[in-house]
Design brief:
The complex is a heterodimer of chains A (112) and B (111). Helices cover 0% and strands 54% of the residues of chain A. Chain A has 112 residues and is an all-beta fold. In chain A, strands 2, 4, 5, 6, 9, 10 and 11 form a 7-stranded mixed beta sheet that branches. The N and C termini of chain A lie far apart (36 Å). Helices cover 0% and strands 57% of the residues of chain B. Chain B is built from no helices and 11 strands. The radius of gyration of chain B is 13 Å and the shape is globular. The chains are: A mainly beta (112), B mainly beta (111). Chains A and B meet through strand 5 and strand 10 of A and strand 4, strand 5 and strand 10 of B.
């Protein structure tokens, strides 16, 4: 199957700082990518749909000014968690594809 | 609305078959997926089935779809310890490409 990578795989930051997470489709182009978050022992919740060349579409309850998404190319989407707080600590996973959706390995964010 | 439900836990003996069940509510779902997640890792796509199919088999995996009852199952034959993981059922919401996930079923395989 296709490969989706994420960077970094884990990050620890101080409260109030911003963190950028990258999602790349390595062997295919993706006009649409998806960002999910997963709390411990819970399922994945879709945060937003990242659209290449246009604004992201956010799910209800997700603050677009806090979770900035940029999809600047057909192989790269970035999620920036701005002014991070401890409650933003989570596992963030991206996916890309159409009929088959492939997921990245995830990024574990810990905010101190 | 869209909702996907799964039982939370399944324990099987090594070598037996495992059957993980899932129900969904969106009758316009086009694709239904099974993903596997091991601790601390991302999701691995195991298989998926198009909504006009009843069954799909891929090596040890068999997916059954009852569209009338909106019921999906994943059968793992000859379950091994390496199959221990969380299995997520997901539906692709009709008209969209986003996936709606169930809560995940934790499969424990014991000797």
């Amino acid at each position: 199957g296709a490969v989706v990578s994420q960077h970094p795989s884990w990050v620890i930051c101080k409260s109030g700082t911003s963190v950028k997470i990258e999602c790349r489709s390595l062997d295919f182009q993706a006009t649409t990518m998806f960002w999910y978050r997963q709390f411990p022992k819970q399922s994945l919740m879709l945060m937003a749909t990242s659209n290449e060349g246009s604004k992201a579409t956010y799910e209800q309850g997700v603050e677009k000014d806090k979770f900035l998404i940029n999809h600047a190319s057909l192989t790269l989407s970035t999620l920036t968690v701005t002014s991070a707080h401890p409650e933003d600590s989570s596992f963030y996973i991206c996916s890309a594809g159409w009929d088959e959706q492939f997921f990245g390995p995830g990024t574990r964010l810990t905010v101190l | 609305g869209e909702d996907v439900e799964q039982s939370l836990f399944l324990s099987v003996r090594e070598g037996d078959s495992s059957v993980i069940n899932c129900t969904y509510t969106d009758s316009s779902s086009t694709y239904l997926y099974w993903y596997k997640q091991e601790p601390g890792a991302g999701l691995q796509l195991l298989t998926y089935i198009f909504s006009n199919m009843d069954m799909k088999q891929d090596q040890r995996l068999t997916v059954l779809l009852n569209k009338k009852d909106k019921h999906l199952s994943l059968r793992i034959a000859d379950t091994q310890t390496g199959d221990s993981a969380i299995y997520f059922c997901a539906e692709r919401a009709g008209g969209y490409n986003k996936l709606i996930f169930g809560a995940g079923t934790r499969l424990a395989v014991h000797p």
